[in-house]
């Protein structure tokens, strides 16, 4: 085997490899000899079939395996001798084309190929003594607990039909059919049948529910509304529409005490136990948001801290992934892929910056985690897999088997767990100051 480095540009290293025909023929001969001892070929005694006959029958197939193993062996040797850290699978090129490949398969000629490795960048991690981050924290107030209990009560609300001839009031549940029209023409997605609507829930377009107050069973009403300017379906945003609505049923809410009766409906022993559980869930939610904002601030600090060349292929893969998601979401919302006030090229450029940030941070976190010996325990991976399986009721076994038999799928589950472990590690090395904020400030969404 002859190996010559032909190019070294940044993270890309290119080598020319020549596999001599004599070496390939020797490997083929060794495998044919091993086959001869075991082969049972019609017309020959066991183990006595001539090598030449076996070569005629199986030589090309065996040589295919020999070539594959020889190429892999050459790549492994290059990686080890040059101490390369590979970012992606190497790219192979056979300049001799199909003709040279066929000659190699017949063990009649050398096989030459070039292999390009895209490597991981080298950079110093350093210490984190100079990183200082404020972590927003908020206390769960009694009002938050009361609001959560009210929400649970609303979800458990039962209704009973109103008396014949009664008119719908705010808080009642109506069962309706409707057909929406723009300029007198029904539009896609604007028709529904046997739809339940609680008046005052604000689940429909602003102004829709109010116009049904006072309606009775069997009554038809023309509801006129204007879609919000920021409505998700762009072809409807800001448009005036009319809905032909038929009221099929009117039901009034039954009284429900926010106390032991409600607790029993949710499987709690008493109201105190339910209230304590609600408080615990809210505290967990507050803690998660607080941690997410700490993590975001930490990632911002790391992103501004490190600057190094990125593997082009990894950036391209990440860009294609997030851009594909953006395109799919835009199609579902019937919106252009270009963000408001920007061209598609400008939008693409911004998404590429996001891809570069993700790749950079991924490499930084991986390096930090490797240096610190961060690992994902089997139990953590199993818990994540159980959570994923629960998302597919009725298909639990199929989903479980898919992940257990698919290393790449398991790696996708492991990656976010590993990232969290590395963030935990770094958090112990930086200065974190808690800043008390209001609930509204804590849950305020920051610009992405």
Number of strands: 11
- Share in β-strands: 15-25%
Order of helices and strands: EEHHEHEEHEEEEEHHHHHHHEH
Mean pLDDT: 91
N-to-C CA distance? 52 Å
Secondary-structure-derived class: alpha+beta
Task: Indicate the multimeric state.
Answer: single chain
Number of helices: 12
If you compute it from the alpha carbons, what radius of gyration comes out, rounded to the nearest whole angstrom?
A: 33 Å
- Specify the helix fraction band: 40-55%
Coarse shape:
elongated
| Largest beta-sheet characterization | 5 strands, antiparallel
What ranges have pLDDT less than 50 throughout 5 or more consecutive residues?
A: none
Task: Report a brief summary of the structure.
This protein has 448 residues and is of the alpha+beta class. Helix content is 47%, strand content 19%. The two termini are 52 Å apart.
Description:
By secondary structure, this protein is an alpha+beta fold. It is 47% helix and 19% strand. Strands 6, 7, 8, 9 and 10 form a five-stranded antiparallel beta sheet that branches. Strands 1-2-4-3 form a four-stranded antiparallel beta sheet. This is Trigger factor. Residues 339-348 have a biased composition (Basic and acidic residues). It catalyses: [protein]-peptidylproline (omega=180) = [protein]-peptidylproline (omega=0). Belongs to the FKBP-type PPIase family. Tig subfamily. It comes from Methylocystis iwaonis.
